[in-house]
Design goal:
Structural class: alpha+beta
Helix content: 10-25%
CATH class: Alpha Beta
Order of helices and strands: HEHEHEHEEEHEEH
Oligomer: single chain
Number of strands: 8
Family: Belongs to the MsrA Met sulfoxide reductase family.
Radius of gyration: 17 Å
Distance between the termini: 49 Å
EC number: 1.8.4.11
GO molecular function, one term: peptide-methionine (S)-S-oxide reductase activity
Function: Has an important function as a repair enzyme for proteins that have been inactivated by oxidation. Catalyzes the reversible oxidation-reduction of methionine sulfoxide in proteins to methionine.
Strand content: 15-25%
CATH architecture: 2-Layer Sandwich
Strand order of the largest sheet: 7-6-1-3-2-8
Number of helices: 6
Organism: Albidovulum marisflavi
Length: about 220
């Protein structure tokens, strides 16, 4: 309905075009559906956080909760303009937000470079504002960093992977790399969606091109 009222933008909105949003966060789940951990747990001592956008966040979250060393995952909206957006608002393209997964992980078990391997190999980062049949700016490829070290690792991996993709016949990478900014939780039903709905749709798919950083089998 909001798409009918406001139309859908096929580009990032200017500030004056963005929906107003709201002052208060929208309701979300209290606990992770699989682990039972409080979804809004603070990052434990010794753990770190990461954030990625790589298409429909249902399938993306599943990729990361399956990784050893990942302690907690959650889906939401980031890298846009509208405060506390809803899913329906984000789908209009008039919030500027991306569908993202925030990952809390133990760096003694899984490195940030290993997570980047999951990111690059788990989607097609050359498609611009789409991922497969899912079209819109909320499906763009993005790495949202929390530290200078993460930003450097992201930039380095993008350069390496661009060469691999080019050799395989793919076009330029369109992935944006930017500071994480504010993460807004998505609604309750989106959290761990494919664990609640195992047969649910997931339009996220990789290129089949291995990433030359991260896990040992990717360095060959």
């Amino acid at each position: 309905m909001l798409s009918a009222l406001f139309g859908r933008l096929a580009r990032m909105p200017e500030a004056q075009e963005a929906l107003p949003g709201r002052d208060e966060p929208i309701p979300t789940a209290e606990f992770h559906f699989l682990s039972g951990l409080p979804l809004k747990s603070p990052v434990p001592n010794g753990m770190e956080e990461a954030m990625f956008g790589m298409g429909c966040f249902w399938g993306v979250e599943r990729k990361f909760w399956q990784v050893d060393g990942v302690w907690l995952t959650m889906v939401g909206y980031a890298a846009g303009i509208t405060p506390n957006p809803t899913y329906q608002e984000t789908c209009t393209g008039r919030t500027g937000h991306n569908e993202v997964v925030r990952v809390i992980y133990d760096p003694d078990v899984v490195s940030y470079e290993d997570l980047l391997k999951v990111f690059w190999e788990g989607h097609d980062p050359t498609q611009g504002n789409r991922q497969g049949n899912d079209i819109g700016t909320q499906y763009r490829s993005g790495i949202y960093t929390y530290t200078a070290a993460q930003a450097e690792a992201a930039e380095t991996s993008r350069a390496f992977y661009a060469e691999r993709l080019k050799a395989a016949g793919y076009g330029p990478i369109t992935t944006e790399i930017a500071p994480a900014g504010t993460f807004y939780f998505a609604e309750d039903y989106h959290q761990q969606y494919l664990a609640k709905n195992p047969g649910g749709y997931c339009g996220v798919g990789g290129t089949g091109v291995s990433c030359p950083i991260g896990l040992p089998d990717a360095r060959a």
